[in-house]
Amino acid sequence: MTGKTPTPALTARAYLAALGNEIRKGFRFAWAERLQILIELPMFAALALLLGPLLGQGNRIVNGSTTWTLDSHTTSILVMWFVPFTFFYMQVVKMFWRLLAEIQAGTIEQVFLSPLPAWVVVAVGRVAAAFLETLFVAASTYGIVSIFVPLQIEWNAAALLPLLSGALGAIGVSLMIAGATLVWQRIQLVNDAVLMVVMIFSASALPLITVPSWWSEISHFLPLTDVTGSLYRALFTHQPVLVAWGMGGLVPMLATTLGYLAAGILAFGLGARAAKRHGTLGRY
Amino acid sequence: MIRATTTSVDDGLAIEVTGLGKTYGRGATARPAVRPTTLSLPWGQVLGLLGPNGAGKTTLIKMICGLVTPTAGSVRVGGWDLTTDRSRAMLQIGAVLEGSRNVYWPMSAWENLLYFGRLKGLRAAQIKPRAEHLLRDLDLWERRHEQVGSYSRGMQQKVAVAAALINDPPILLLDEPTLGLDVESALTFKEWIARLAREEHKTILLTTHHLHDVAQELADRIAVIRSGEIITDLPTRELLARHAEDRWEIRLAGSLDHLVGALPGGAQTSIDHNETRIWLPDNQAGLYAVLDHLRDTGARLVSVEKSMPSLEEVFLRLLHDPAAPALVSKEATR
After folding, report:
1. Residue boundaries of the structural domains of chain A
2. For residue range B14-24, what is the model confidence (pLDDT) as tens digits?
3. Labelling B56: which of A39, A244, B80, B261 has CA 20 to 30 A away?
């Protein structure tokens, strides 16, 4: 039996310092990618402007009678929809690519040598960075789109609840993707597919398109649908957000959010364990 | 000097590996990377872990620092079990891993050290003096705010080791630390590692392919791993002594080609511009006869000693001789 070196357990302060550390690093890398964000920025605005005349106009498109005009109400709803999706996109995409870069560079192994839980270290910095990037992208998208069409979104503090819920759900999904990335690395197609599915299904929460009932039912199981519904309720209908059921209801929204968050933490842990078991943590 | 922990050297072991093994795959595809290994490293010792590519060195090191999960056995670091006391065990270790950048190239050396210090649970006030000490010691202080990506390979490797040492861990794991370094950088690096071992009494587990320059000069003890199995684990001097050959080596100053014809049968020579070496079978009478002859010819004697093989020769002998006996010291299995 050997004697143990007297090593104090890590204090809460050490955890906070390490979390601040990751946030700082996340911002550092976000700043390094500012050109990429600037290039992407007009795309978000262009998508909102192009979808405006087309969304929910399937019959007119088929008949060839599409009216290429920008409707203020429709475009406002689209811009509102873009905010949680942009956060989701930033969180998941940045988490995937930055983690992949760390795997390729091998720095991920040094992160795992930290005495802190790896999922905390890996996730937190990205969340804060994604939040800041989203604020910038959402504000810029709002600004660009409003040049072409006046937007009518009345801010309501009740919108903070679905926004927070959406952020937590996005963290959960990003951790699931991160766990899979640690094991399989080359999963960019899966990543893109997840983004696409979440985007398409969350649109069913908007009163702009008509979807079959099965589509609507399935969409409740995806992380952004009820968040979008609740946000629409808060910002466009002046109805309370504390409604239990229905599209944007509190129960499906919180259930999916907490479910994805828990599944994300679990999936990341399983992914890290599998990578350590296969010896592929820092191998690309 | 600031330490992340109140670690002190006690009478225990720095690293204690018991029956540690790793097999990839299952059933017919099972491939053992490291066969069950028992190894211990006392505080302050430098262990050179040598082996050809694919022998299992990196897997063993990664199991010791918890980056690869073993299929058998256990690891204790500073007395802390890696599985049940992971956080405390991690605070004992700094590691520089092979084939890895280890630090962030888009960040400066200063930013890297701050980052890795916080990652180890230190506060900025603790990290800054330590980071300054390390960067000055490594002649990187003036360039501390430049991106690591703009540094030479040697400088990048110095930053990697500095990052591993930022919380002043008592144990350092270095997997091929001189890989890719030019001769001068490797020399500087080796001197620094030697200083860490001698002056700061770090416990170091080191793998390298630079057997003479790095392993033989730095390591107190050498373990050779072949096909996932440690076949030799001995103090460096003892390992070399055990492989000492039954022959004499005579070194003479100058290039003495004319001597070759006068040497007895079985003698071997090596001649260059500055030195002539003669190896004779272990025969006292033959040795004296040759020495008499050398004296008569006026050759300037430098040394006469029992021939000691280099670590490279011993290493190759161990690897290529399937019948090489396992030489393991008591310390290794303690």
Report:
1. 19-53+70-278
2. 999 999 999 99
3. B80
